[in-house]
Predict the structure of Cinnamoyl-CoA reductase 1-like isoform X1.
Amino acid sequence: MEVVEEKGKVCVTGAGGYVGSWLVKLLLSNGYKVHGTVRDLSDEKNAHLRKFEKASENLQLFKADVLHYDTLKAAFAGCEGVFHVASPVPATKVLDPELELITPAVNGTLNVLQACLEMKIKRVIVVSSIAAVLLNPHWPFDKLKDEKCWSSEEFCRKIENWYCLSKTMAEHAAWEYAEKNGLDLVTVCPSVVLGPLLQPTASASSLFLIYATKGGPEPMLDYLWHFVDVRDVADALLLVYEKPESSGRYICAASPITIRELVDLLKGMYPNYGYQKNIVDVPPSAPLTSEKLKKLGWKWRPLEETLTDAVECYREAGLLDELEGHTLHLPPLFKVT
Ligand SMILES: NC(=O)c1ccc[n+]([C@@H]2O[C@H](COP(=O)([O-])OP(=O)(O)OC[C@H]3O[C@@H](n4cnc5c(N)ncnc54)[C@H](OP(=O)(O)O)[C@@H]3O)[C@@H](O)[C@H]2O)c1
């Protein structure tokens, strides 16, 4: 029998979400005692968390909103580390960017960091995104985008990409706060996260793959997209938490592939879906590099494994069924200009 070493107590904000759920599962299986925050303890969408192995002994759920400071303090009590995962990832059009995205991302992150400082948390891992890296019009198109590359807030506003703006502002605010207050912070910037779901509903990034597989009315842009398996993101978050030498930002992006290549790959694996036909050419852009994370020891799955596990999971959940009278839409977040 495998003996798992008992570890300290850590908290995961947004425990019931796509990334949060896989992280909680991984932490439990690695011997951690986990505090997980959810906004509604009685909501069925969080019920899967209590079914994880070791959840009955080692998982405690807390009702917390990142905009309600005291709820965070209660969840962080007794913890050594905090993984701040919670941040809105909209699957539909954003009507009020300030209220729906920017305030929860920025003020939420600052509340989390302040509560970490007050509760004497030793290390904080903030989940940022390549949304805070990619939108930099000044970066040379033939130079790999590494951790020095930051999305331009001005550019995000100009093209009204509110999700990218919210993640860029939140990560900047996190670094400013941590440096000013001497907090041990590491940020991880995952690319588009795919792979099987643990929660009952499809996340926004899963809808991207479902849309490419089923096809829909909005064109998809033939960028060089970077995908990463949700299980590899959880591994990366634990890796940066556990490695004392980790510091700064880490891009967490595995497989670069264009949409046309992705659709062709999927067609070869599952020939019976409709697939997106309207794919539009775009100018070339510089790929991302995760060299810094790889040097720390990060490993990732081949894209084929991620796609197989994702499609099988969607199939079982009925997410690839054709529903009469229902048109699938591409989450606006992915209509990058
Ligand atoms: N999926 C991707 O492709 C991707 C890529 C890069 C980075 N990320 C980042 O990864 C993190 C998780 O994303 P995800 O894909 O797992 O999305 P998700 O499934 O939608 O999870 C988002 C989580 O944030 C929580 N949340 C939102 N607003 C909150 C608030 N005011 N207070 C407390 N919790 C709040 C949600 O709780 P409720 O369930 O209560 O709404 C949910 O648990 C985010 O920070 C996102 O920016 C995701």
Q: What stands out?
A: The chain has eleven helices and twelve strands. The longest helix spans residues 97-118. Residues 93 and 332 are 6 Å apart (CA to CA). The first strand starts at residue 9 and ends at 13.
